[in-house]
User: What shape does this take?
Amino acid sequence: MTTGRFVSDLEAGDVLEPVTYVMTPFIAREYAHSVEEQSPILQGDLPDEQLAAPTLVHIDKIRLLKRNCPAGRGPHARIHYEYDATHHDVVPVGERVVASGVVAERYEKRGREYIRIEIELRSAIDGRLLTSYRDTAVLSFAPKESRA
Amino acid sequence: MTASVPAGATRYRVGDELPPIVRRMTRERMRWYADALLGTSEPEPGPMLAGANVHTDDEFARGEGLPGIISDGMISTNWISSVLLATFGRDYLERGQLRTKFIRPILEDQVISARVRVRSVEERDEGVSYGFDVWCEDEGAHMCTVGSAELTVRG
Assistant: This one.
């Protein structure tokens, strides 16, 4: 199932097909590397525990968009505008998790179109809520009148 | 003027500022995130070289109305997150909240300071709850990323 061919097709109310995956040591470590986060608990340098950075929930948005909008972004580059995450519990490496999302709002402000997606990351084992996330992006940086 | 709080201190006051992270936003740093975003969002680890986008390709970025490549907002967000993690560790990971808004594009070679300042302190049964103002600014003190954070340090 796909929700829209392009991300730019998404509308308020669209429910994104969830994505289930295992939070691997590679994902947690590679993401931490990419932002120079050297914490041993994220890098996997502690003997008995490795956790994922809470900001990794941004990647869940990417996973959901890849699954639901296989043709890509649409006519213009999408630019991230707002990140809003609440951590309800840690995300341990090895945990099977499921990311779900709904398009909460699509609106226009000063000639630019914005899209807000609300995402939840839960344990796939017991349904426990791990992270809730609101992501707002601009669908085109250049305002409509300058593209005319 | 804000007070500087040494690492390891257990109680903070309104106005205290945590040790900042100061880094130059290089082309490489933008590339690292763009590639990781690709490599960590696939079902299995695979090629990790992001194609042309507003974070990797100047010509592409200019075609979108930008002056050149810009940083992914999640880089500055992660630097703020690192400041919180370095000070509060698991308390931030377990019960934290972080909100950031990207109000000004961060361009190549700008020197960016990720800063966190205590906005509120509240004693609760479960511990001490902190509210923070968070932001990233360039070398000219122009705000690029602004937001807030909350967490509770268990007593």
Notes: Chain A touches chain B at residues 21, 26-27, 30-31, 33-37, 39, 41-42, 51, 53-56, 58-59, 62-63, 66, 76-77, 79-90, 140-142, 146 (CB under 8 Å). The beta strands of chain A are 15-22, 79-87, 96-109, 112-123, 129-138.
